[in-house]
Amino acid sequence: MSEIAQEFDPENYSFVIGIDFGTTFSGCSFVFTGDGTEEVVDITDWPNHGSQYSKVPTALLYQDSGHNLIAWGDDAINDPDQSDNPESFLVERFKLFLDKSVESMPELPFDLTAIQVITDYLTAFYEYTKTVFEESFPDLYDPSKCRYCLTVPTIWNDMAKAIMRKAAIQSGIVDPYDHPNRLMVTSESESAALYCEKSFPGFNLSHGDQWMLCDAGGGTVDLVVYAVDESSGERQLCEVTMASGKSCGSTFLDANMEILIKEKIGHLVELNGSMMLQLMHQFIEDMKPQFDNEEDMFMPLPSSILEVIEDLDSESEIVDGQLVFTANELREQVFEPVVLQVIELIEEQFQQSSSEIKALFLVGGFGQSKYLFQRIEEVFGDRLEFIHVPPRGDLAVARGAVIYGLNQQKVTKRILRRTYGIWSAMMFDPVLDSPEDQIVDGDGMSLCNNRFFAFAKMGDAVGIDECVCSEFKWYRSESQSLRIYTYGNYGDAPRYIDDPDIKLMCAFDIDFPLDIERNHEEGIPALVGIYFGSTEMRVEITIHDSMFTYTSAYDCLDNSYEVGYSEVPLKRSSMSLLVNKYKMSTTYIENFARLRSSVVHNSKKPVANI
Length: 610
Ligand SMILES: Nc1ncnc2c1ncn2[C@@H]1O[C@H](COP(=O)(O)OP(=O)(O)OP(=O)(O)O)[C@@H](O)[C@H]1O
Ligand SMILES: [Mg+2]
Hints:
InterPro entries: ATPase_NBD (IPR043129). The chain has 610 residues and is an alpha+beta fold. The chain folds into three domains: 3-185, 2-Layer Sandwich (Nucleotidyltransferase, domain 5); 201-389, ATPase, nucleotide binding domain (Nucleotidyltransferase, domain 5), CATH 3.30.420.40; 416-609, no CATH class. Helix content is 23%, strand content 29%. Adenosine-5'-triphosphate (ATP) is lined by residues 22-25, 55, 95, 188, 217-220, 249-251, 284, 288-289, 364-366, 368-369, 394.
């Protein structure tokens, strides 16, 4: 059901909270706007958190066939029994389940689904942060006065973003009936870029200068190039390349290391879960950050391993109870295969940009790696004026999310990573189109009813307030949904909607104004405007004098995720293209007074059916 929109007023909220849901660690920063300051504060005190790292492990410990979540964060990882207890199951890196390109993900235990574990984690995370706020702001904290900015990897598709929104709602962070703006979903790289821009005193780049952001985390590495845009008088950023990224973060070093350890001592000792956990802990905490490709490295072996190795003295790989790794071995088998993927991604960004890129900012946990820095300097040093690793790069995303929450106008343009369009009937071409798809509309016009009409194309630069509009006629009254399709490859989009490379992304049910005669012979004029410039797409459909607003947060479909989505049969479009596509500024659209006399939005629509 639709209802008259409540305009969103940020003034109603006194906390802006940034949540960086990471593959290995998650972070939280916030600002209390109630006292007029904009000082960003981090939550660094997590339950039983022994590490210097300011974020909390993204980990859950389940028991009893997945029905019982017994610990989260450090408690999940540090539970002494968990690794060898068949009754309990540690779940980590589950964010990667939402990246379809990652192969070889382990099965989730029991009958858990990706969205359920993400929801469980966010619930625990949220409940804990509430206690921190209650203690720190006993008189000022009120959950209904908080709004949130949740970050997602830049390379995720719209479906994965919608799943995150759904998980945030299920975990109680926001209510399904809240205005969508209360929970902003934005990209990790953009948040990190905003942090770099705001916090780096040496950020002396001027109008038009380009710089690259590389956020190398535990799971993904995200990259994008920005240009400094001072045309409005204040410094803003505009994207100049299409963001790229890959799941090749620091945990892929861990996976390589695990293989290397097994290669070295797997034949001497049967490595059980807790042994491997201890060894990997040493690698992650001590060896990985220190590796500089010069010194050989030593890993002390626990007594549980040393005791079972029969002839310890004859093992040349083990010296004084320590397993020896040569620098060469670590480079070739652990670091270089992953680092090379990062280098390739940086090179791709250089190729995409036609102008000089002056600087590279390296953030994220993996972004602190000495070896990664060395290699980037070696390969790209002569093309860059400087490479900078900002302080607290691990918190760049959470802090940047807060900066985004405070001002969504800081990035003025974004580059589309996909082509978006709808299924529509367009002028029939007897040479190209099949007679089977030919229909004649109420005006006697011959149309092909199988066309993909691209609203905006991959690589297009779209302003954040820019609306791409087309006028349509709605013919078949029985179909009331507008379906948005995407095409993710380079080059021209296919002509026909049933091309296998065109994917259905979402469907919005349109609540036709009640006074409309449904079987209108001449078609019902409808103006469809899509805003692509925000992280989540927004669609406005104007029919007669009513406007309906939808965000891609709703009604996303993708049955390839096993997260409980019901299959929705594809229906033919009921739209035919009336007027060519044109771009309009928001102000211009506002001049459509006749069409805009009332504004309706569907925030009451239950999100459960996405
Ligand atoms: N100096 C270092 N060298 C290499 N890896 C490091 C270093 N410091 C931390 N890491 C690794 O970085 C990862 C954590 O980084 P970060 O917090 O940025 O990732 P994340 O946010 O969990 O992941 P993602 O952003 O990919 O979802 C962990 O895998 C950690 O072991
Ligand atoms: Mg991260």
